[in-house]
Amino acid sequence: MALYVEGLSKGVPNGGMAQFQEMMRQQLESSMHAELEKLLDTTTGAEREVSKKDFEGFKNLFHRFLQVKGPSVEWIKIQRPPEDSIQPYDKIAARGLPDNVADSLNKLVVVKLNGGLGTSMGCKGPKSLISVRNENTFLDLTVQQIEHLNKTYNTDVPLVLMNSFNTDEDTKKILQKYTHHRVKIHTFNQSRYPRINKESLLPVATSLTMTGQNAEGWYPPGHGDIYASFYNSGLLDELISQGKEYIFVSNIDNLGATVDLHILHHLVSQPNGKRCEFIMEVTDKTRADVKGGTLIQYEGKLRLLEIAQVPKAHVDEFKSVSKFKIFNTNNLWISLAAIKRLQEQKAMDMEIIVNPKTLDGGQNVIQLETAVGAAIKSFDNALGINVPRSRFLPVKTTSDLLLVMSNLYSLEAGSLTMSPKREFPTTPHVKLGSSFTQVQEYLTRFESIPDMLELDHLTVSGDVTFGKNVSLKGTVIIIANHGDRIDIPAGSMLENKIVSGNLRILDH
Question: 19: annotated binding-site residue?
């Protein structure tokens, strides 16, 4: 971190400043390399080899981190993307589909980012194993979607899961249940990088083990790691040798990220010289998405701009819906051959995200991460497609879970679609309070999921429970004050109502 190095150089005469800073950088880098070697010496065999590969990537990231000076973008150079660089989805879909949809599908691999845990929703283990609809987990729905494609078109679209060391073991155990499904499933692991002490800029881990306090010394370095990990695993080459050309990458908790045949057709039907190597699905920003990354034109290239890269003075401008109208859904279509080329040329360029954390013992650390979409500027003929909001249906909280469990959506072959009975295609705004944060507690508060077909806005705060067959319409606000409890009776219909105080239904 150049700022760290600059802090050490106070009092050095101006002429020697650059030399001093370079010397400090080299010193920090050689200390880091020595510590990494010590860590490698704590194990042998296959684990050592895997960690050695991981550390090569980490060294490269750390080297770049020490060089970075201030914000990675100059605000004045930011331009709106040219009209043709972000295409409306309707224009892509209007071209129709060819007769040989199967030929296009056989060139495709579906990749799901499966490195996250369910801790934010109070669940242990991988997030992908949380039940979201009719006892189906995120992973079940994904397998059902791809199996449906393979059966319908008689194709062989494989599923690839990018696991992390946090999710790999539990995910592999569960994969056995899909043995008889018509989907080939592959996995590979994200890298494991060492967390760095914020003061010394050295690893906090003392060995490569994942036990005791040492477990806190490691982290998976963000989904930008997909390119190197995929390449290093050997799976990339294996899939290319099978005739696969593109991957469709998305977060496993985005239930809207299904294979879109129109986007796929657009990709594979480009003339050879103009082959599009990267498509990012973007969608219109609403007030709820102000922090989402957006596409800009920068130094002649399409580029992803994340809030972490924005100078403080311009954060409000970045959040404005009028200037930056779209955001990245993290649904990406990427050429396998291009990933291989860029990895071999070491030309994959992604900004570093510095993520500060405090460990359980109070120690301040930083983790260096990258984002998969940030590599867009490294690919040729990259394109944004402005897709319908329905392709962005992430489940990050129990408020999101309530929406996807409700009658707002119907489930068919693993895909959720908005019910035709809803008059407006917009999703209601749901905000459940802290009593609903954990999935287990959330489930005990609903005897059945309310009818939400005509709901616009729901806010629930405090100790509130819902009886069977409750119907919510318009704007409903339910607030139980501290010490009070509100039981919404079975069969109630609340339309444009505020319920507060103490409404407790007692059996007698």
Answer: no
